[in-house]
Amino acid sequence: MSLLEQLQIRTTDAMKAGRKQEVTALRLLISELKRGAKDAGQELSEAEEQKVLRREKKKREESAEAFRSGGRSEAADKEESEASLIEEFLPRQMGEEELLKLIDQVIAETGADSVRQMGQVMGLVTERGGAQVDGKAASHLVKRRLLA
């Protein structure tokens, strides 16, 4: 079953249960996936669908942070709720320990020893880890390893 079909089924279930906020969030995701397919001129691959979901999740997290700093906790809670809903449809992210193991392996292979080689290390880490790698966390850990 495709991601779009999963979202549509979940939307129907949320509508029947009267969960309006969830319905709104799911409809937005469906819309973004359809827009992505239309822009690409073809059905999105699984990796492209996940990219759309990660982008939407990141938007929600940034909005929540902005709302919190502006003293609008209700709006921030709504955004965080939507971000966690989106996360349900994304693949599991590597834990810090697993990510550090991958980073150490890549650093050893490339012989990287300074922050100037961070791009090379990050490229291989994201290539090998795929959708399971959180870029922000990986970047932080790679920098920490290269500065040590």
Core attributes:
Hypothetical Protein Yqey, Chain: A, domain1; 2 domains; Arc Repressor Mutant, subunit A; mainly alpha; 0% strand; 7 helices
Shape: globular
CATH topology of the largest domain: Hypothetical Protein Yqey, Chain: A, domain1
Rounded radius of gyration (Å): 18 Å
Note the gap between the termini.
45 Å
Strand content: under 5%
Q: Would you report the number of β strands?
A: 0
Query: Which class of the largest domain in CATH terms?
Result: Mainly Alpha
Give the CATH H-level superfamily of the largest domain.
Uncharacterised protein YqeY/AIM41, N-terminal domain
Contiguous helical run count? 7
H and E order? HHHHHHH
* Estimated helix fraction: over 70%
Total separate domains: 2
Topology of this structure?
Blueprint: H1 3-17, H2 20-40, H3 46-69, H4 73-87, H5 96-110, H6 118-129, H7 135-147
